[in-house]
Write a structure and sequence with these properties.
Helix content: 40-55%
CATH architecture of the largest domain: 2-Layer Sandwich
CATH superfamily of the largest domain: DNA-3-methyladenine glycosylase AlkA, N-terminal domain
Number of domains: 3
Oligomer: single chain
């Protein structure tokens, strides 16, 4: 998009471009999302930025009205397989907070200077600034939706010190943390109360969202012990356990009437895992997708067009834990349930039907079916983390003894979000059946509904 096209999007308050770019106004010193309801500024006063971090780096503060830090992420970062796309996915997963820029660069196979240069050239901000913007958003979320103490929030959001936290909040929001909290009417509560209620989340997405289809697929695939779907269609809740860098967690996401977000709650043993947990839920529910681009492309197909028209906001669910999905794909749903029962780690505080974490790869290296892939994952010869090189993963999966090609394709599509995967339509592997049977039912239903 050129700048004139971007300004047209701002003038029309087009929400389709929220998260794709940001605009800043020189006369007010603030930056906004394209759909901001405020009076449209004059063109000569507007500057465009590819990321919120770039706008913050130029001294602009976030708009109080449209909250540009809360927009969905750009779909581009999930699609792209280059260094910038991989870096953005890893920053979202909290790698910079945990391992610093050297850790990010090492995972990418580049030097810190090269990573810094490429991100600055394309995004207008380096990895530290991008991670800082993400920490600020997490902090604002916690300040305005939970009763956690300010000190706890600072470290939960990924800040190294309370002073760094205070300085960042003042710079980005032009208010102190206490003032941000006061605006929402939230008060500090005992930690036990916050733990019991969980952390409430609003997982933003752009455009319509085909929640019924996504929740139906997740219900068909749910593995007892680590996942469950409760309620009737239209009012279901998907719940699952999460193995996270600092501890474990339980996430619950509600199916609800069409809106701008999905309602969710997370319970964490360590609050530092919040950013990672949120990003994994976003990938699982494909919340950063561009449904308008999907509808335009699929709508041109004579067979798929009617399905897209009848079900706007169609998504392609990913995986909350890529290695888990890969191992489940090999053994199938029934086999995965046995793995959980026999090798899964027990939760310290079981909740309903959620009692375990899916076993780590190193615990399954001797398994007769999952063993070859588990060994490759444990040894690092197969990488499925958010920053993994997709072509390298494709080659390494092909080298795993006995791994069927359709299953490898499903792993690339769901675990790594690879958009260039051709699933074999006649594949009859057990791991593929839930997806096939669910898709087939909807395909047949759509045909019978039509004259």
């Amino acid at each position: 998009m050129d700048e004139d096209t971007r300004y047209e999007a701002v003038t029309s308050r087009d929400a389709r471009f929220d998260g794709e770019f940001f605009f800043a106004v020189a006369t007010t010193g603030i930056y906004c999302r394209p759909s901001c309801p405020a009076v449209t500024p004059k063109r000569r006063n507007v500057t465009f930025f590819p990321t919120a971090a770039a706008a913050q780096g130029h001294g602009f503060r976030a708009c109080r009205r449209c909250r540009p830090d809360a927009v969905p992420g750009s779909a581009e970062w999930n699609v792209r397989a280059d260094v910038v796309g991989r870096a953005m996915r890893m920053i979202g997963d909290g790698v910079v907070d945990r391992e610093g820029v050297p850790g990010l660069a090492g995972r990418l196979g580049y030097s810190p200077r090269q990573v810094q240069r490429q991100l600055n050239a394309e995004l207008g901000a380096g990895p530290v600034a991008l991670a800082r913007a993400q920490r600020a958003h997490t902090a604002r979320l916690l300040l305005q939706t939970t009763g956690l103490a300010v000190t706890e929030i600072a470290f939960a959001a990924g800040f190294a010190s309370v002073r760094q936290f205070n300085d960042t909040i003042r710079q980005i929001y032009a208010r102190t943390p206490s003032a941000l909290r006061a605006e929402s009417g939230t008060r500090t509560a005992p930690r036990s109360a916050a733990d019991a209620a969980g952390i409430p989340l609003r997982l933003a997405h752009r455009g319509p969202y085909a929640a019924a289809q996504v929740f139906g697929l997740l219900a068909a695939e749910a593995v007892p012990g680590i996942e469950e779907v409760r309620g009737e269609p239209g009012a279901r809740t998907y719940r699952r356990t999460l193995r996270l860098p600092y501890g474990s967690g339980i996430a619950a996401v509600d199916e609800r009437a069409p809106g701008a977000w999905l309602e969710a709650r997370v319970h964490l043993t360590d609050l530092r895992d919040l950013t990672t947990a949120v990003q994994r839920l976003r990938r699982l529910f494909d919340l950063d997708a561009d449904p308008y681009a999907v509808a335009e492309r699929l709508g041109a197909d004579p067979r798929l067009g009617p399905l897209v028209e009848d079900r706007p906001g169609v998504r392609s669910p990913g995986a909350a834990e890529p290695e888990e999905f890969a191992l489940r794909a090999v053994v199938g749903r029934a086999g995965a349930a046995r793995l959980v029962a026999e090798h899964g780690s027990a939760l310290d505080a079981p909740c309903g039907g959620l009692t375990r974490l899916f076993p780590e790869a190193r615990a399954l290296t001797g398994h007769p079916v999952a063993g070859p892939l588990a060994r490759a994952l444990a040894e690092g010869t197969v990488r499925l983390d958010p920053g993994a090189d997709r072509e390298e993963a494709r080659r390494s999966l092909a080298a795993v003894p006995g791994l069927p090609e359709p299953v490898a394709a499903a792993i690339l599509m769901r675990a790594l979000g690879d958009p260039d995967v051709a699933l074999t339509p006649d594949a009859d592997h057990e791991a593929y059946r839930p997806w096939r049977s669910y898709a087939q039912r909807h395909l047949e239903a759509s045909r019978t509904d039509r004259p």
